[in-house]
Amino acid sequence: MELKPKNYIILFILFFAILIGIQGYQLYNTYRLKQREIFADIKKNLDRLEDSDSIFDNNLLSKDIARDYYIKLVKKEITAEGLKNLYKTHAQKTSAELTKYVDSIFRPLGMHIILRQEILGIYYKDAATPLVDGPITVYTTKGTFHNPTELSSSKWLTEKTETNRTQDSIQSREILYVFSVPRKTFFEVVNLNWILFKELTSLLLSTLLILAAFIWLFYRTINNLRKQKKQIAVLHDVVDNISHELKTPIATLKIAARTLQKSPDNTIVAVIERQVSRLEQTLDPLNESQNATSLSPTTAKELQAIFSDFQLCNPTIKLIVEPSLNLPICLNPIDTATLFSNLMNNAVKYGATQLNIRFEEQKDYLSIQVKDNGQGMEESELPYIFEKFYRIQKDNIHDTKGLGIGLFLVRNIVKKYAGKISVISKLQQGTTFVVLLPR
Fold it and tell me: Which residues are paired to 140 by β-bridges?
């Protein structure tokens, strides 16, 4: 079953959507893979960074100092807010140094990394409620986090035994302080999207190129199919018109042949000659490569004969030729007759009752204007009227009979003599053809 063009377009959209989905899925997987590779490389470097005691212990709160402050918190020698402010102060003091150190590792790799460690809470012994609620920033680099990624998660367990003596030193007791401190470390790649974009540029461009090529090929295919369909329709129409044009002379020749069988008659012979000539004139335009039998320029007398024959066949048409016909025309008589006959007959076919033909000498050209008062043409038709077999249609029905090659022949003649042709037309306002021929 043959599909309609609409169905082809629907199928294309469906397959194109599937192709976009496949390409998008591949891009997404590649994006995630590259992201994991970048994160793995960052974690490797940051894991090495965490092993440096000189930065994370000496310059920040060391574990022993931190534990002593936790004990003071239990003894209520400091408050929870006081401990948080202490951490905040240490984090601010070390932020610049830590930022510089992290940048020295990742800037050469083209990465901008920000880092932060937080305490989620400080728990005393097995208590379910923390002494201090988190999060509490232990250290951080400069920068604002928007989409942090977890680097590591751990729990620090520390304990210390203290001997508590009374004033008379007679009685003493030992107290065990046990603290549980869960911590998490986060990082973020500030320029992650730019890094991934650079990594995926070639893949993205190739994907877009494939999609663009797919659309272009589909467009060309549909366009060629439409042209072929149009050409087939035109050929069918041409065959129908040729059949119509040949019926009358063939019927006349049959009658003449039967008459000659009965009795010879010179009048019948003349009829046969005219009908044969008519058949030749009908078929001649189908041959593009017609050669002129005469290379001599058209004379004023020959040009006048062309207009006289047209007026004889179309007595109701008002033909105005100006000025005189003494201007030299470089066309040979056959090409001249073909050019003017097609332009004038075309005007008559499309409703013209008056034709104005004007000759005007210009510097390097002879200008010939053929103006009519016919029904005119839509602007959308003008780019196609000089194509072979093209005929103006209305509601997909041809209003006039013909082969649709008259203007095609006119254009070829003008082109052969290195001239130019243009057309101005509006519906219900007539049409003007302007031919410029080298002098």
Answer: 116
Q: What is the mean pLDDT of residues 172-196?
A: 88
Residue 432: its pLDDT value, please? 94
Q: Tell me: the pLDDT tens digits for 188-232?
A: 999 998 988 888 888 888 888 988 888 888 888 888 878 888 778
Sign of CA dihedral 303, 308, 309, 314: positive
CA distance 382 to 390: 11
SS3 assignment for the chain = CCCCHHHHHHHHHHHHHHHHHHHHHHHHHHHHHHHHHHHHHHHHHHHHHHCCHHHHCCCCCCHHHHHHHHHHHHCCCCCHHHHHHHHHHHHHHHHHHHHHHHHHHHHHHCCCEEEEEEEEEEEECCCCCCCEEEEEEEEECCCCCCCCEEEEEEEEEEEEEEEEECCCCCCEEEEEEEEEEEEEEEEEECCHHHHHHHHHHHHHHHHHHHHHHHHHHHHHHHHHHHHHHHHHHHHHHHHHHHHHHHHHHHHHHHHHHHHHHHCCCHHHHHHHHHHHHHHHHHHHHHCCCCCCCCCCCECHHHHHHHHHHHHHHCCCCEEEEECCCCCCECCCHHHHHHHHHHHHHHHHHCCCCEEEEEEEECCCEEEEEEEECCCCCCHHHHHHCCCCCCCCCECCECCCCCCCCHHHHHHHHHHHCCCEEEEEECCCCCEEEEEEEEC
Distance CA 419, CA 437 (A): 5
195-202 long-range contacts, Cβ below 8 Å, gap at least 24? 195/38, 195/110, 195/111, 196/31, 196/34, 196/35, 196/38, 199/34, 200/27, 200/30, 200/31, 200/34
User: Tell me, what's the pLDDT at 292?
Assistant: 46
Alpha carbons within 13 angstroms on the beta-carbon side of residue 87 total 25
Does the structure show a pLDDT above 90 at 123?
A: yes
Average pLDDT over residues 120-134: 89
- Domain definitions of the chain by residue range: 52-190, 292-438
Phi, psi of 273 (to 5 degrees): -60, -40
Q: Does domain 292-438 have CATH number 3.30.565.10?
A: yes
pLDDT band, very low/low/confident/very high, at 163 (cuts 50, 70, 90): confident
Q: Measured between alpha carbons, how far is residue 317 from residues 322, 347, 355 in Å?
A: 16, 10, 7
Residue 114: strand pairing partners: 188
